[in-house]
Specification:
By secondary structure, the protein is α+β, with helices and mostly antiparallel strands. The chain folds into 2 domains: 3-84, Phosphorylase Kinase, domain 1; 91-215, no CATH class. The chain has 4 helices and 14 strands. The protein has helices at 48-65, 102-106, 191-194, 201-221, and strands at 3-9, 13-18, 21-29, 32-33, 43-44, 72-77, 80-84, 91-98, 120-130, 136-138, 144-147, 162-163, 170-174, 185-190. It has a 5-stranded antiparallel beta sheet, with helices on one face. The protein has a 3-stranded antiparallel beta sheet with strand order 12-13-14. A two-stranded antiparallel ribbon has the order 4-5. It starts with a strand and ends with a helix.
Length: 224
Amino acid sequence: MEKGNILCEGKTKVVKMVKNDPTKVIIKNKNVITKNDDPDQTRTMERKAELATVITCIVFEVLKLAGIPLAYIKKVGKTEFLAKLCRMISLEIVVRRYAVGSYLKRNPTVEGGKDGAPHRFTELCFEVFLKTTGGVILSKDGKKIGQLPIDQETKRPVDDPLILNPMCASWKLYHPKKPISDNSYLCTVSREDVLPKNASIEEIKTIACQVFLIIEDFLSLINL
């Protein structure tokens, strides 16, 4: 298996084509960590790429055994794994068992449990965010269809807004780190413009929650 040209490169990963097989790619992790989508807070961390690859591949192998459909194929190096070439759907899917992090920023009235423990969701909490870079909203064909406003606190465009109503035909976008209210409403986009015809939020939710429960059970077996 011979590596080809770089297909794309992000802050934490490089995706390379596989020569003589246009259906597959090699994904290489970097020794880079990021924070708050802020380039100024990007740092390098020794062995991060190696550890991230090991953990990622273990999780994918568990999911493969459980019958979850995957792009992942196999680990091929200390910092690399082989995968099917796919087109990304511009969504970030978050499944939660506990109310922590940015969820509390959007829902500040949610109270924790006893002894300061975070609120635990009996039924999994499913959230969908629209993936953007520099506040640019792209269609499923890669065309610019909108621009999110500047965040007055960070002085940068808002990125990765919360889709408050992902099951609806028109998606209402809200600031991902502010309480959900009229003041945090950003704009509305058509689900049809972003989501490929062969994909549905219902199916995405089903798979995401199955993945969460499998990983949750797996980690409990090793006391994590």
